[in-house]
Design goal:
It is a single chain. With 250 residues, this protein is an alpha/beta fold. The chain is 39% helix and 26% strand. The chain has 9 helices and 10 strands. The protein has helices at 45-52, 75-82, 100-111, 117-130, 146-158, 176-193, 204-210, 228-232, 237-249, and strands at 5-16, 19-30, 34-39, 60-65, 68-69, 85-88, 164-168, 196-200, 213-218, 221-226. α6 links the parallel β7 (164-168) and β8 (196-200). It is globular and about 55 Å long. Residues 7-244 form the ABC transporter domain. It holds the Pfam family ABC_tran. InterPro entries: AAA+_ATPase, ABC_transporter-like_ATP-bd, ABC_transporter-like_CS, P-loop_NTPase.
């Protein structure tokens, strides 16, 4: 039977001085899956994403991406792995001094130094069409609404055709209608582009649209794992309290 795992995390531990933020985490993510990561603030959700992409070293354990142990790779080898990973940061992280076009061109030129300008132009145009923002191509980030910035950030993340997408609070700061639109865009792109995704979120609207499976980080460990409806309908007092607050906030 073929191994469908794209990410394997084995006994991962991450500390900040004497504080353990991730404690012996073991987790598999399978191709085509959308995994949602829940947890209260300070439980290591964003740290987990940064460890997966190699932006943050960890103290012990292993992270394998496509069967390659990222802790044993050279910088050059790690950068090759990163070419197949997209990362949507919490605030979209657009370059304020660049137009939308230039923001999308940047990763293409960095990852594919021999790409022609014609190929770049075609890729930028096609990717903006995917997020329905073709008309924004020459706008500056300051001219965009919060939802538009999220769409452009998403476009920049997928323009290199990653097989794995990491989302850090993709709907933070958005109203419920825009949250639903961005979440539906995420799941539609995942299906259209055959991507796997890991999304850190506290947003139930987003999670209900995109999640195939969910985990909950508590006390530095994976305390709960399963289908989203199993977590939200759980009789566990902690989960009931957490999700009731999230529902009220929506």
């Amino acid at each position: 039977m073929a191994d469908t795992r794209i990410v394997e995390i084995k006994n991962l531990t991450k500390r900040f001085e004497s504080h353990t933020i991730l404690d012996n985490i073991t987790l598999d993510v399978h191709r085509g899956e959308n995994l949602v990561v829940f947890g209260r603030s300070g439980q290591g959700k964003s740290v987990l994403l940064k460890c997966i992409i190699g932006l943050m070293p960890f103290d012990s354990g292993k992270i394998l991406i496509n069967n390659k142990d990222i802790s044993k790779l050279t910088i050059k080898e790690l950068n090759e792995i990163r070419k197949n990973i997209g990362f949507l940061f919490q605030g979209a992280a657009l370059y304020d001094s660049m137009t939308v076009r230039e923001n999308l061109e940047f990763p293409l030129k960095k990852i594919f130094p021999n790409i022609s300008q014609r190929e770049i132009d075609d890729k930028v145009k096609n990717t903006l069409e995917l997020v329905s923002l073709e008309e924004a191509i020459d706008k500056m980030p300051s001219e965009l609404s919060g939802g538009m910035k999220k769409r452009i950030g998403l476009a920049r993340s997928i323009i290199t055709d990653p097989e794995l997408m990491l989302y850090d609070e993709p709907t933070t700061g958005l109203d419920p209608i825009t949250t639903k639109e961005i979440s539906e865009l995420i799941i539609n792109l995942q299906k259209k582009l055959n991507m796997t995704s890991i999304a850190v979120t506290h947003d139930l609207i987003c999670a209900e649209i995109i999640a195939d499976r969910a985990i909950f980080l508590k006390d530095s460990k994976i305390a709960y794992e399963g289908k989203l409806d199993e977590l939200t309908s759980s009789s566990d007092p902690f989960l009931r309290n957490f999700f009731s607050h999230e529902i009220v906030k929506e």
